[in-house]
Design a protein that fits this description.
By secondary structure, this protein is an alpha+beta fold. About 35% of the residues lie in helices and about 15% in strands. A 5-stranded antiparallel sheet has the order 1-2-3-5-4. A two-stranded antiparallel ribbon has the order 6-7. A hairpin with a 5-residue loop joins strand 6 and strand 7. Helix 4 runs antiparallel to helix 7 and helix 6 crosses helix 8.
Length: about 300
């Protein structure tokens, strides 16, 4: 059960839309321009990001999977219809986790990204990868392993394909509540502007998996989610502890921020660091506008 936070409106400028200062909102006016970070355009930044070592938080098995997603030869490709951007399924010349069949992944090339007014061009694949990095650092395991790679249609993100469960037992459904709250905490930290119902999957293990994280990491509060009713609720103790643990563990936090700096603009990394700090100090889900705080859903 979610407990409501005492007191009135929160005043966290990087989390709560009503508390955002004009200084935070200024970058919004220039976000639609092509992104250059450290003097590098997206293509050059992509090549530089490929040189990053494996995340320290990843287990040996996770590192092997990330390497296969990034380097295994492509044996087949198919288009996923009804997507806002160009999205493909890759069949890779590697074994799937568990050893049954070939490894499949979702590939989102930068060249297939639709132009948006509020996100820099050709950066959504970086944001997909950055969200996985945050989830991995927290230890939640709710975002499929995601990497950058050069694919059949150029640079893009490649994410482990989620095999969705056909039906779920009552026991599995009962366990999803805690996982939804954890994924909602990830959404707060990455400032997810597009958490739709269709982006919440249950895999064949009965685990919740969140997908489609291209619209994240804006430097001003812009969260939109179907989980908006959580606003004003306290993070469960174990989630608040995990967030505070990441904030309080300086080496782990610095390593994550360094990895994010390879993927995001400095203002976006600074805003993430501020959201982490504010949520650790005051672990309450942000209260969002009942209209503007919800995403546009197709069905």
């Amino acid at each position: 059960m979610l407990h409501r936070a005492p007191g009135g409106a929160r005043r966290r400028p990087h989390l709560d839309p009503a508390a955002a200062s004009p200084q935070i909102l200024i970058p919004r006016r220039s976000m639609a321009a092509p992104a250059r970070v450290g003097g590098l355009d997206p293509d050059a930044r992509f090549k530089a990001a490929l040189t990053a070592p494996a995340p320290a938080a990843a287990s040996e098995a996770q590192r092997e999977l990330l390497l296969e997603l990034a380097t295994a030869p492509v044996k087949g490709i198919g288009r996923i219809p009804y997507a806002s951007n160009a999205v493909f399924v890759l069949e890779l010349d590697a074994a799937a986790p568990g050893g049954e069949g070939r490894l499949h992944a979702v590939y989102k090339p930068a060249r297939g990204e639709r132009r948006l007014w509020d996100f820099p061009q050709h950066t959504l694949h970086f944001r997909e990868t950055a969200t996985y990095e945050v989830d991995l650092a927290l230890g939640f395991g709710l975002v499929p392993p995601t990497v950058l790679r050069e694919g059949p249609h150029g640079p893009g993100s490649v994410q482990l394909f989620v095999e969705v469960a056909g039906r779920t037992s009552s026991a599995v459904r009962q366990g999803l509540g805690a996982q939804i709250l954890a994924l909602a905490a990830v959404d707060v930290l990455v400032n997810n502007a597009d958490r739709k119902r269709a982006h919440l999957l249950v895999d064949t293990r009965g685990r919740l998996m969140g997908i489609d994280h291209g619209l994240t990491f804006l430097p001003y509060p812009r969260q939109r989610t179907v989980l908006a009713e959580l606003g004003g609720g306290l993070l469960p103790e174990e989630l608040a502890t995990a967030v505070a643990g990441l904030q309080g563990d300086a080496p782990r936090r610095r390593e994550l921020l360094a990895r994010l700096r390879r993927l995001l603009a400095p203002v976006e990394v600074d805003a993430f660091a501020a959201r982490l700090r504010e949520l650790a100090a005051d672990p309450v889900y942000p209260e969002l506008d009942p209209w503007d705080g919800r995403p546009w859903e197709w069905w």
